[in-house]
Design a protein that fits this description.
Aspartate Aminotransferase, domain 2; 398 residues; alpha/beta; single chain; 13 helices; binds pyridoxal-5'-phosphate; Aspartate Aminotransferase, domain 1
C-alpha cells in the first residue's frame, strides 16, 4: 500500500484525535502503581475528574471502556428484578437497556424516534403512575452519539422531583463530558458514566463513574453481586491515591494532562467552541441541501452531527469514498439508521481550521461519490465562523 501523506482526519464521534501533549504525557515510563510516586498521580486524576464532572462527591476510574462504567453504575445500585425507566434516544440508550436486561433488571423503555433527546414530560408521567415506587432508577443518555441529540438532564431531574419519586437519576455522559455542559451536583445526578476517548481527548481505555451520596448509600447495602466494579473497594484505596488492582498508569498520566489542558482553555470556552462547531456544521449540512438527523431545536449536539443521506444513496459507500480519496474517517450509522446516516465528529482538541478541513473532506466526498447536493456548504460554515468570531470579539470589547 502506498504511503498517505499528511495527517489522517479522524472525524468519527470518538475516539477523537489525541493531542501531542497527551501523547507525550502517556509515553512517560510506567511506574510502580503501589510505590510512593504513584499516589500523586492517582490523587490528581481523582480530584481533577471531580472538577470535570463538577462534583464534590465521589468519582471512580476504571481501566475499561465506557461499557464497563455502564455496568458499574447498574451493579452497584440495583438488584435483580428492579425496574428501571430508560429512554430510547438511539443506539447507545438501546445497548444500555439490553445490558440492564442481561443483568436481570426489568427496564421499561420509553420509545423515541431517534431524532431528539429524552422527553422529561413522558418520564414524569410514567413516574407519577408508579405510586408504589417500583422504579428504582431513571437512565438517560446525555449526548446520544448515534444521533447527535442532547437530553435535557436538568429537566429530567425536575421531572423526577415533580413526580415526588425517589428513583436514582443515572446519566450516560460518555460522549458529552468535557465537550458540552454537564453539572453533576447542580443537576442532581446520582450516577454519571463517562469514558476517556471523547471530550477528554485520550485513547480508549478509561471509564468513569461519579456517584452521589445517595447512590453511595444505596450501594453500601444494595446492588448486585460484584467484585471488579465495587465502588466501596475502590473508595477505600482511592483515599490515598491507590487502586485495588493495577490501574492504567499511563492513561492516568494522559488524563492529568487532559485535565490541565481543559482548565487552561476554560471549560466554558471548551463548551462554547463545541457549540460553535456544531452550529457551523449544521449550517454547512443545510447549505448542501441535506437533513440533520436531530430535529429538536436546541437539542442538537456540539459533539457530532448525524446527516441523513438522500433516498437511494448509501451512507457507507459515501464514507468509503471519502476515506479512500481524502483520508477522512466519518462515523457510520448504527443499527436502526445503518447506511442511512453518516456522522461528522467535531469534538475534542479541534479548532476552526480543522473543522473547515473536515467539512471540505465531506463536500469533496459528496462530489466524488455522486451524492446529490448543492455545493457551497463549506463557504457557509466559514461565514458562520467568521460572524461568530466577530460577535465574540464585540462581546469581549463590551
Ligand atoms: C453515548 C455512549 N454510550 C456508551 C458508549 C459505549 O462506550 P464504549 O464503546 O467505550 O464501551 C458509547 C461509545 O461510543 C457512547 O458514545
Amino acid at each position: 500500500m502506498s504511503r498517505k501523506a499528511g495527517r489522517h482526519f479522524l472525524q468519527i464521534p470518538g475516539p477523537s484525535a489525541v493531542p501531542d501533549r497527551i501523547l507525550r504525557a502517556i509515553s512517560a515510563q510506567t511506574i510502580d502503581h503501589r510505590g510512593p510516586d504513584f499516589a500523586q498521580v492517582g490523587l490528581d486524576a481523582l480530584s481533577g475528574m471531580k472538577t470535570i464532572f463538577k462534583t464534590t462527591q465521589d468519582v471512580f476510574i476504571f481501566p475499561a471502556s465506557g461499557t464497563g462504567a455502564w455496568e458499574a453504575a447498574l451493579v452497584n445500585t440495583l438488584s435483580e428484578g428492579d425496574r428501571v425507566l430508560m429512554y430510547e434516544t438511539g443506539h447507545f440508550a438501546t445497548l444500555w437497556m439490553k445490558m440492564a436486561t442481561r443483568l436481570g433488571l426489568k427496564p421499561e423503555f420509553i420509545e423515541g424516534d431517534w431524532r431528539g433527546g429524552a422527553d422529561p414530560d413522558s418520564i414524569e408521567q410514567r413516574l407519577r403512575a408508579d405510586t408504589a415506587h417500583e422504579i428504582k432508577a431513571v437512565c438517560v443518555v446525555h449526548n446520544e452519539t448515534s444521533t447527535g441529540s442532547v437530553s435535557p438532564v436538568a429537566a429530567v431531574r425536575h421531572a423526577i422531583d415533580a413526580a415526588g419519586h425517589p428513583a436514582l437519576l443515572m446519566v450516560d455522559t460518555i460522549s458529552g463530558l468535557a465537550s458540552i455542559d454537564f453539572r453533576f451536583d447542580d443537576w442532581g445526578v446520582d450516577v454519571a458514566v463517562s469514558g476517556s476517548q471523547k471530550g477528554l481527548m485520550l485513547p480508549p481505555g478509561l471509564s468513569f463513574n461519579a456517584a452521589s451520596a445517595k447512590a453511595m448509600e444505596v450501594a453500601k447495602t444494595g446492588g448486585m453481586r460484584r467484585s471488579y466494579w465495587d465502588w466501596h473497594d475502590m473508595k477505600a484505596l482511592n483515599a490515598t491515591g491507590y487502586f485495588p488492582y493495577t490501574p492504567a498508569t499511563n492513561l492516568l498520566y494522559g488524563l492529568n494532562e487532559a485535565i490541565r489542558m481543559l482548565h487552561e482553555e476554560g471549560l466554558d470556552n471548551v463548551f462554547a467552541r463545541h457549540q460553535r462547531h456544531g452550529a457551523a456544521t449544521r449550517a454547512a449540512v443545510r447549505a448542501w441541501g441535506l437533513e440533520v438527523l436531530c430535529k429538536q431545536q436546541g437539542q442538537e449536539s456540539g459533539v457530532l452531527t448525524a446527516v441523513m443521506m438522500p433516498n437511494g444513496h448509501s451512507a457507507d459507500a459515501f464514507r468509503a469514498t471519502a476515506l479512500s480519496n481524502f483520508d477522512i474517517s466519518l462515523g457510520n450509522g448504527l443499527s436502526k439508521v445503518a447506511d442511512r446516516v453518516f456522522r461528522i465528529g467535531h469534538l475534542g482538541d479541534f479548532n476552526d481550521l480543522m473543522l473547515i478541513g473536515t467539512l471540505s473532506g465531506v463536500e469533496l466526498g459528496l462530489r466524488k461519490a455522486g451524492v446529490p447536493h448543492r455545493s457551497g456548504g463549506v463557504e457557509v460554515a466559514m461565514q458562520f465562523l467568521e460572524a461568530a468570531g466577530q460577535e465574540q470579539e464585540a462581546s469581549q470589547v463590551a
